[in-house]
From TrEMBL:
Entry keyword annotation includes Manganese: no
Organism placement in taxonomy: Bacteria, Pseudomonadati, Pseudomonadota, Alphaproteobacteria, Sphingomonadales
Family: Belongs to the peptidase M24B family.
Residue ranges annotated for the Peptidase M24 domain, each copy included: 182-389
Protein name (record): M24 family metallopeptidase
All copies of domain Creatinase N-terminal, residue ranges: 42-174
Highest rank taxon of the organism: Bacteria
UniProt xrefs under SUPFAM superfamilies: Creatinase/aminopeptidase, Creatinase/prolidase N-terminal domain
InterPro entries membership: Creatin/AminoP/Spt16_N, Creatinase/aminopeptidase-like, Creatinase_N, Pept_M24, Peptidase_M24B, Peptidase_M24B_aminopep-P_CS
Amino acid sequence: MTVTQGNAAGGIGGSNAAEQLAQIRPWADPAPAITLDERMARIDKARRLTRDSGAEALLVTAGASLNYFAGLAWSESERLVALLLPVDGAPILIAPRFELGTLEAGLLIEADFRLWEEDESPTALLAAALRDKGVSRLAIDPAMSYLFVDRIARDAPSATLVSGAPVIDGCRMVKSAAELALMQQAKSMTLEVHRRAASILRPGIRASEVARFIDEAHRAIGAPGGNAFVIVQFGLASAYPHGLPGDRALQEGEIVLIDTGCRVAGYHSDITRTYVFGEANDEQRAIWELERTAQQAAFDAVEPGKPCELVDYAARAVLEKAGLGPDYKLPGLPHRTGHGIGLSIHEPAYLVRGDKTPLAPGMCFSNEPMIVIPDRFGVRLEDHFHVTDSGAKWFTEPQPSIDRPFG
C-alpha cells in the first residue's frame, strides 16, 4: 500500500521537525525597543485624556497597560501592583515591599514607590495616596479585577470611581511606528513558523506533536516565550472555532487549521492558515475560496472615519450572497470578523456589528471571517492589517490558495 505524503510540492509534508528546526535562525533584523521618550509621551497623553474625562488620576493595573506605560511586564494577581498616574506630579507605584528589587529592575520610567507589607492593606495605602494628591475622582483601568475595585471603593469612600477605558483605549488603540514595527516582526516570525509547520505534516501525526514543534520553532526564531498560544485542528475539529478536546491524528484528505502566535517585546502575532493534507475535494475548495473572498471584502471595506462594524458587514455580505448565515447562523460565520491587537491579543476596537468606533490610522485588527460547516469542517484564514490614511495595509499577505498555502 502506498502512503501518500500530503502535497510536498505545495509545502505540505515532505520534511520533519528535526530538519526544520536545524534550519531556523534567530530573527536577523529585530525591531527597536520602545524608547523612554515614547513612554513619556504616552503618559502625557494619558494625563490629558484623564483630565478631559473629569478625573484627577488614572489607576493602571498590572498587565498589558502597566507594560504599555511603564515597561513593566507584570501579571495581575491577588497582590496589588498598580500605577497611580495623577494628572500632575510623579507616577506612584503601589506594590508589595518584598518585590521592590524585581520591580525596580523592570520599571522603565521614574516613579515614587508606596510599599505594603503582607499583613497590610494595599488599597488603604492607595486611599492615602489619593488623599495626599487631592484625588476625588479616580479613573480605573477597565482590566482591573473586581477584587481590587471593590476594596478601593471601601477604603476610599470619598473618591468617585469611574471607568478609565476612554483613557486606556484612547492611548493604546492607535499604534505608533515603533509599535507597528514590533508587531510586524512578530507576525513575520509566526508566518515563517507556519510555513515550516506545514512541511512536517505526515499521515498519523498528532496535533500535540505539531503544537510542540510550533513552540520550539517560535523559540528558535526569536520569541523567548515560545507560543503565545497555539491551536492545531484536523478534520472535524476544525468545525469548532477553538477545536475539540483530544489529540487527533492526521489523515489524508483532512482539513488542517493551525492558529498560532508569539510575542515580541509584548506585542502579539495571531495568524491562521487552513489547507488540506492531500488533495482538496470540491466542497473544501469551494468553501476555502469563499472564505478568501470574504476576507478580502473585509480588507477592502476599511476606510478611515468609517465605523468598525462596516468591515464585519462587508464580510457577511459575501457569505450571505452565497447562501450562508445570515448573521451568526450555521453554516456560516459564528463570530465577529476581527479584533484589535497589540499588547493584548484581543483588545478594542472590534470588527463586529454594534462597534461604531471610527477607524483611524494606526489601529490594528485581525481579519478572520471564519466559515463553519457543522459536523464537517471549518475554514479560517486570519491575517492582520493596520489602518492607513487611505485604507488598510496587510502585515502579512493572505494565503494565496488552498493547495499552495505559502505561495
